[in-house]
Design goal:
With 183 residues, the protein is α/β, with parallel strands linked by helices. Helix content is 31%, strand content 29%. The protein contains five helices and nine strands. The strands form two sheets. The protein has a seven-stranded mixed sheet, with helices on both faces. Strands 1-2 form a two-stranded antiparallel sheet. Strand 3, helix 2 and strand 4 form a beta-alpha-beta unit.
């Protein structure tokens, strides 16, 4: 297991969670998490949240800590899934569903189970260019509605699908956070 991370806000504030060291992954910096969650805080109460490339689960745990009704955690990496399960158990979180799937399979799973998300956090390994594929599938599979928010964490400027309106685009060091909604 990797570094210790902490929950930065909400009812689990300052609780420690495990990170991990897996090639090609990186934890979202606290100041980025803090800014993102401050900007979406009004959307979090009772939200259905998806942390699509969960890693340690810190983003989804932050969402639950700040009032999300349920969080779906998805990661294809078995080590990451183990870390997420350990973190969820350590914090006694009961409103979490963990999937161990490729992102395409998880999106199909959500479609087949009629799950609509209020907030989706997309932070794939930077060597995988899948942002627009995911954005298009969110609409095609009816996984979001007009009020849903999609948050993208990326390391270079993206050409976002024309089906989305960018609400916020901010650079933090070598990362960008883009918040968008379906047009």
């Amino acid at each position: 297991m990797g570094d210790k991370l902490r929950v930065i806000s909400g009812y689990l504030k300052n609780r420690k969670i495990d990170g991990y060291d897996i090639l090609g992954t990186r934890a979202t910096m606290d100041r980025v998490k803090e800014s993102v969650f401050a900007s979406i805080n009004s959307y979090l109460k009772d939200a259905v949240f998806l942390d699509l490339f969960s890693g340690s689960g810190s983003i989804g745990i932050e969402a639950i800590s700040n009032g999300a009704k349920i969080c779906y955690f998805n990661d294809i990496n078995n080590k990451a899934i183990k870390v997420i399960k350990n973190n969820i158990n350590k914090l006694n979180i009961s409103n979490a569903i963990i999937l161990n799937k490729d992102y395409k399979d998880s999106l199909l799973y959500f479609k087949n189970n009629n799950i609509i998300f209020d907030i989706i956090y997309i932070d794939p390994p930077y060597n995988i260019d899948c942002y627009n594929d995911i954005l298009d599938k969110l609409i095609k599979y009816s996984l979001i509605n007009e009020n849903s928010i999609v948050i993208l964490e990326h390391n270079k400027l993206l050409d976002i699908s024309n089906n989305y309106e960018i609400i916020k685009n901010k650079k933090y060091g070598n990362k960008f956070i883009t918040v968008c909604q379906k047009k």
